[in-house]
Amino acid sequence: MTTVRRVRPVREKPNVLGGLGAFLWLLVVAVPLYTLLIATVQRSENYTAEGPLALPSEPTLRNYVAAIDNGLLVFVGNTALVTLAVAVLVMVLSATTAFAVVRSRSRWTQNVFRVFLLGLAIPSQAVIIPVYLIIVNLGLYDSLTAIVLPTAAFALPVCVLILVGTMRDISEELYEAMALDGAGVARTFTQLVLPMSRSGLSTVGVYAALQAWNGFLFPLILTQSADKRVITMGLFEFQGEYRVDVPGLLTAVVLSTVPLFVVYLLARRSLVNGLMGVGGK
Amino acid sequence: MTRKSPAGSAPRTGRPGALWAVPGLVYFAVFAALPMALVAYLSLTEWGGLGAPRFVGLDNWARLFDDPLMGKAVWLSLLLTAASWAVQTPIALLLGVWAAGRQRTRAVLSAIFFLPLLLSSAAVAIIWRALLDPNFGPAAWLGPALGLGSLDLLGGSGSAFWVIVFVSAWQFIPLHMLLYQGGARQIPESLYQAARIDGAGRLSMFWHITLPQLRHTITTSSVLMVVGALTYFDTVLILTGGGPGTDTSIVPFLMYRVGFKSWELGYASAIAFTLVLAATVVALLMVRFTGFGSMRSTREGM
Amino acid sequence: MTTPRVSAAAVAALALLGTTACGGGGGAGSDEMHVWMYQDTLVVVQEGAVERFNADSDAEAVIDEVPGDSYVERLRTAMGSSKKPDVFFNWGGGSIEPYVEQGMLEPLDDMLAENPEFAGSFIPSVLESGKIDGVQYGIPLRGTQPVILFYNEAVFEEAGAEPPETWDDILDLVDTFNEEGVTPFALAGADPWTEQMWLQYLVDRIGGPEVFERIVGGDSEGWRDPAVLEAAEMVAELVDRGAFGDAYASVSYTEGGASTLLSEGRAAMHLMGSWEYSTHLDQAEDFAKEDLGYTAFPPIDGGEGDPANVVGNPTNFFSVTSDSPHLDSALEFLTYTSQEEYVADMVANGEVPTTTGAEELLADSPSPDFATFQYEMVRDAPHFQLSWDQALPPDVATPMVTEIESLFNGQSTPEQFVDALAAL
């Protein structure tokens, strides 16, 4: 990679067309985001009058205070719980499964892998009705667990696939070295396979977390009370509650993004690499 | 060795037994595979969500084939998938390749381009709904400013569909851009150096080196787009509610409306089962054409 | 991530799963009696009742405010689970029929017989509408909600216009306001139940209540009554004339768009349920008190329906789930809906109660004139038609409102509209 850095910028003429295209896309991305941000410091009574692009004449933070008063933090907390639970559940289950698929001599595990592959493209909408039936029968309706269980299940196929890819790259010599050390399966798994699959695991974590973070249909059908609302539900319900207080609604949207934005600032590299990994492996 | 004890472990070689796959498989079976089987069963019943489903044979399926709304929904879903692919792929590919360069400006812009990915689909839909509100949003201000009168994009038959295409592109292009950025960075620089010695221009290098080298990424990204387009449900629900009329009622939305508004969960299961079938076909094609499931190390293909 | 951290995280997550599971289990099975309310500005009345109830009784009642957009589906998913509400808001009619069929609701006849004073406190015809097949399942909890033609007096004054008294007046006003650059009628096209109000009045004025009675009786050929086609043609004419402006298809009522157009003077009139008054009182108080005008939907020449007929919601009801662990408390709670304080709260929030003798209280309403107008309108109506989408079972109502939306959007012609409904 270092060679690229040395060679490219020096040799090439500036890419005018590319720059222009990128600038246009910058407008497409940034103008709505700018409108969004200034709306959140706008007084709702001035929102329509002052136009979407002008800086507010009387900027205010009261929308933020109001959004927090409306229970947004509860929703953020619920989402954080769900996201963490889904990510860990998926990481544990996909790691053990992928380990078996890659290393087990049993033909049976190859069939397991095929089962997961067939589940790759199934959208959660397709099974919401039976999932509702199952959750109701488990007595889990209107609990955060009801969201976690199916969300994690539908993230599993992609995650198993990603980890199988990662684990296949661990060389046979390393396994042999572990075996010579007298390591058993469990030790091989925890001391060799897991550390060597770090990049895959972070991809899996990011992917599963995003599924949970974005989840909409499962919470919509499987929960109802205000104290079980996750962020996506909270925003959906706010739409009706705020009536025409668009700045208030948009403030809730912005605030709902803060946790992920903080993660982005702190761990941009692993988040980006994780996402690249979703397609790359 | 393992043949003797297929479910046990073989400590000497550190090879796991099939038992290691059991937790994942059981979990997946209960919360994903069982529901898929249940969808098939429920599609043969009449069920309103209360009491027990009543077996009615193939009634729902007969109705499905005659339902003009289902036909329309299938068409809209196919159109949405195709349009999303056609809009997102070129933009994501060009931006990704551009962003693969190591210049400082490109890094900064990439960071900004990434931002929509931090928003959930619900948030994105709410933002655009507010922006496009014909009476209280910027669109109300923009329409007259451009001399177009009222701009009710979400209320127009054709325009509402394209709003959904655009909004999902706005949301998902950053993801695909990242994939292409990653892919483009793995193309060996030596290929470009050789081409430059031959006097190739930027366009010709893009055409003859970058594109062919990115073919695996294109496949992966396209597959993700196709699978993703099956799930634009949240966007449709919040932005248009399937309307105006039924003009944006794609298959998942129709399933939701029939199931959770009309409470014909049996019939909705028949609609859902067509989604399962479609998704399985996509998965099979995916495994076949991308080599996802093959035994080779995945890094080799990049 | 190193191994110890992975396992630590795993332990943490499993612990979390455990706690969330417990948290979920504790919510509804607990000692609280859950009272579901449709979320809007009027819930304060029920909140008052819950406070009084909790002070008097050992039981602990809580109000679960469920957002209006998803009230019906949330209710049904919860009713299918073990976490049913104990007492819940509904519209009577088709909205509770599926639960009655499954035997999930508590018949209230005995309770009414034991409390004759309570039973006698409601206008008999209103109480009657809480019955399904002759059995009482609902107790009125709200004021009556006729659909009324609201208008902005300031806008009318500026245009020198008078409120409509005939259908021709309506057509003239459409032209007048279009010339003034004001949208004649605010319309929340993204919530087709608001469009349904237009059709309901038109069909009733043209053909009388018998037309819909046939349909609700299960005869979908009833949609082929000439009155339905004529009403649909009148809707198409309104749309073509620009009665609703050109940007109504994506306007939402629950998000407040249509009401705000009226209060800001960007629309001149708004056909809406009487709760519109409370909405304005809450969102635009000055407008509600100064400039909010109201009148009845005008008669139509040659129509068979009585021009005094109204459509809307006769009232809303509380029903009780029969397997509620708080059954006795729930029944006790119902009696709070006829208490003096409750009725006074309703009046203070601009509602017109359905209890007998409410007339005398109307002077305390924030707008006694409006309250009296509404009271007399309902009292004198020979027929009060429950909203179609609540009167019909959901598997007919849902496609029906979609067809209504298509008609108003000009996506289907009046003939196609009738054909589509007859095919339901």
From TrEMBL, chain A:
The chain crosses the membrane at residues 20-41, 80-103, 115-138, 144-164, 204-226, 246-267. Residues 76-267 form the ABC transmembrane type-1 domain. Keywords: Cell membrane, Membrane, Transmembrane, Transmembrane helix, Transport. Gene3D superfamilies: MetI-like. Signal peptide: none annotated. SUPFAM superfamilies: MetI-like (SSF161098). It is a multi-pass membrane protein. One of its GO terms (cellular component) is plasma membrane. GO terms for biological process: transmembrane transport. The keyword DNA-binding does not apply. It is found in: Cell membrane. Belongs to the binding-protein-dependent transport system permease family. This is Xylobiose transport system permease protein.
From TrEMBL, chain B:
One of its GO terms (cellular component) is plasma membrane. The chain crosses the membrane at residues 20-44, 73-100, 107-128, 223-245, 265-287. It is a multi-pass membrane protein. SUPFAM superfamilies: MetI-like (SSF161098). Gene3D superfamilies: MetI-like (1.10.3720.10). Keywords: Cell membrane, Membrane, Transmembrane, Transmembrane helix, Transport. GO terms for biological process: transmembrane transport. Residues 74-286 form the ABC transmembrane type-1 domain. Signal peptide: none annotated. Pfam families: BPD_transp_1 (PF00528). It is found in: Cell membrane. Belongs to the binding-protein-dependent transport system permease family. PANTHER family: ABC TRANSPORTER PERMEASE PROTEIN, INNER MEMBRANE ABC TRANSPORTER PERMEASE PROTEIN YCJO. This is Xylobiose transport system permease protein.
TrEMBL record, chain C:
PROSITE patterns: PROKAR_LIPOPROTEIN. The keyword Signal applies. It comes from the Bacteria. Residues 1-23 form the signal peptide. InterPro entries: Bact_solute-bd_prot1, SBP. Keywords: Signal. The keyword Signal applies. This is Xylobiose transport system substrate-binding protein.
